[in-house]
Design goal:
Blueprint (H helix, E strand, L loop, with lengths): L1 E6 L8 H14 L5 E6 L15 E5 L2 H9 L3 H18 L4 E4 L6 H6 L5 E5 L14 H22 L4 E7 L2 H11 L3 E4 L14 H4 L7 E6 L8 H9 L3 H4 L2 E6 L6 H6 L9 E5 L5 H10 L2 E4 L9 H8 L4 E4 L2 H10 L2 E4 L4 H12 L10 H6 L2 H9 L2
Parallel strand pairs: 1-2, 1-4, 2-3, 4-5, 5-6, 6-7, 8-9, 8-11, 9-10, 11-12, 12-13
Length: 387
């Protein structure tokens, strides 16, 4: 069987690179009697490591294809153009099964015409769980319209009879809801926790000049308004000095344009807490070391109801997380006892959870191994590729 695994929008701002590279690494270590082609965008931001076997091949868009994709600013036209590229490669390579690493982008294109190959894909932004951000008439009506639009999009994709499996990360409830309405075409996919080599000599406290005795609260990933950093800082601003002097807020990840300046305006310079910011994507080895050596992971996103790899990485190192009290992340945190839930809009609630973890090391002890083992690379790849 010939597989094509396609992601034409890889950037170093989230899961995309790791999701593809780990499939390549896993297949390179196994012996499957199939041919695996990986179709990716061309970018100076990343380089996929060469596969170790002849039946695995990485294909980049041509310069002309990449240029055409980059020049198209409208999302619908861009996704339609990319779908033409993907379909052409499927035809040229005689592909039997296409795996779309981000199905969301191609829902309209998928529904326009049946495909001569099987299709599976990851649906990253299902709408089923979402709620209005605020309980105002305007927000409620806006949310209802958005929900209708999302439902129309996914049903459009399902018109393609060869779209056989739509994968949803970590969320059996969404899978069950959609299958009840759409005839058993939705499937659970474990949101993977990947393993990367450690930098044995890396010391997070030394590297980031973290003052001795402080409890390190880690905020990791692409840093924008969804990460709820402003409310976290506002909660730190309410701490008494005797508590604030025990805190280091370590923020690591590329900041959205202009966002670091917004955050800086929230700090109260007279307060005793420490804030360290690293406005860049760090290496996988440094990421592993940072999670291993921090004390508490923060994942109090606002208006975000999907899965998150952050809680899995923290769980691997038995580090507790403070998470928003809604959506799949909250349910998984409760199920596996991975940390504490809080209303992300509640300054006093966030303060209370920070104080809880400051109270002593006994409050910062969890066992995340059950979650980690259920979400390893093998489970993710074998489920996604149906191997």
């Amino acid at each position: 069987m010939n597989y094509l695994i396609a992601d034409l929008n890889i950037k170093l701002d989230g899961h995309k690179y790791g999701f593809v590279q780990n499939i390549i690494d896993y297949l390179s270590e196994e012996n499957y009697p199939h041919s695996f082609y990986f179709l990716v965008n061309k970018s100076p931001e990343f380089v996929l490591k060469n596969p170790a076997k002849e039946n695995i091949r990485i294909i980049c868009l041509t310069d002309a294809e990449q240029s055409a994709s980059d020049l198209e600013s409208k999302l619908l036209k861009k996704s339609s153009l990319q779908w033409q590229f993907i379909s052409a490669y499927c035809s040229r390579l005689e592909i039997d099964r296409l795996i779309l690493m981000e199905l969301d982008l191609y829902q309209v294109a998928l529904g326009r015409k049946a495909s001569p190959f099987e299709i599976s894909g990851i649906w990253f932004r299902p709408h089923c769980r979402s709620l209005p951000e605020h309980n105002t008439i305007k927000d409620v009506l806006k949310h209802k319209l958005w929900m209708i639009q999302k439902e129309v999009l996914i049903r459009s994709a399902l018109r393609n009879r060869n779209l056989q499996k739509v994968f949803v990360l970590n969320d059996n409830k969404v899978v069950d809801q959609m299958n009840h309405r759409c005839h058993q075409r939705f499937f659970y996919l474990p949101d993977p926790v990947f393993d990367y080599p450690h930098d044995a000599g890396f010391n997070v406290r030394k590297a980031y000049d973290i003052e001795e005795g402080r409890v390190v609260f880690l905020l990791f990933g692409y840093i924008d308004e969804r990460k709820n950093v402003q409310n976290i800082i506002r909660a730190l601003n309410t701490l008494e000095d005797k508590d604030a002097e025990k805190v280091c807020l370590l923020i690591i990840g590329k900041f959205a344009p202009g966002f670091q300046k917004i955050l800086t305006s929230e700090f109260k310079q007279e307060k005793a807490y420490q804030v360290v910011m690293n406005d860049q994507f760090v290496s996988d080895s440094e990421m592993e070391s940072v999670f291993e050596q921090c004390d508490v992971s923060l994942r109090m996103n606002i208006n975000f109801f999907g899965s998150s790899g952050i809680i899995g990485t923290a769980a691997k190192y038995n580090k507790p997380s403070i998470v928003s009290d809604f959506g799949i992340v909250a349910e998984l945190t409760e199920k596996y006892k991975l940390g504490e839930l809080v209303d992300p809009y509640s300054i006093s609630g966030i303060k209370e959870k920070i104080l809880y973890f400051l109270a002593g090391p006994q409050n910062r002890q969890i066992d995340g191994q059950a979650y980690y083992k259920a979400h390893d690379r093998e489970a993710y790849v074998k489920t996604l590729l149906d191997l």
